[in-house]
Amino acid sequence: MCDAERRLLANALLDYANERFILLSETCIPLYPFPFVYNHLVLSRSSFVSAFDDPGPYGRGRYNPQMEPVVSKEEWRKGSQWFEVSRQLAIYIVSDTLYYPKFKDFCRPACYVDEHYLPTMLSKELGSKLANRSITWVDWSRGGPHPAMFGKGDITESFLTKIREREDCLYNGHAGSICFLFARKFSPSTLEPLLQRASEVLGI
């Protein structure tokens, strides 16, 4: 997974006009019109990568001591694989030859590189550049190893409005209500009801 992500970043970096880089899945939807998303990202002083210290079995429990001294257990981080980074961070990721080999060699199931590599490396080397949160909303409330998958019956005006209306995140050092620009996971059956509500609710 991370091999593919690094190749995608390297290819996108070939276009010097590209300043921000975001990884989304096929089950993601935008929550705002493209011009709004573009301006929000371009004007941000931070990159949106979530990284946190999980002391449990799915966090530090996945750490392999053979990663020392490059990465210590205290430096080990976990986060979402869906990220957004600036050009500076994208260049750092694709040029990394110190951390990635360690993760390829010593982060193997049940350790997943895409959940630990970027959060750990970027927190350690460029932590001040991170907003330390994801801009992709997911719902873990239903339990299980994967977030909820939404179907046609879930798509209502109140549901979409609820995702968009948040007031608990920082943007360029100030409190803001725009926490998420995208949301997942949405099945193909949601396309029709999403298109019906896109103009009125999402402004798309």
Automatic annotation (TrEMBL):
GO cellular component terms given for this protein: membrane
Molecular function in Gene Ontology: glycosyltransferase activity
Subcellular location: Membrane
PANTHER family linked to this entry: CORE-2/I-BRANCHING BETA-1,6-N-ACETYLGLUCOSAMINYLTRANSFERASE FAMILY PROTEIN-RELATED, CORE-2_I-BRANCHING BETA-1,6-N-ACETYLGLUCOSAMINYLTRANSFERASE FAMILY PROTEIN
Organism field: Ceratopteris richardii (Triangle waterfern)
Primary localisation category: membrane
Membrane topology summary: Single-pass type II membrane protein
Signal peptide: none
Descriptive protein name: Core-2/I-branching beta-1,6-N-acetylglucosaminyltransferase family protein
One Pfam family named in its UniProt record: Branch
Keywords, in A-Z order: Glycoprotein, Glycosyltransferase, Membrane, Transferase
Domain of life, per lineage: Eukaryota
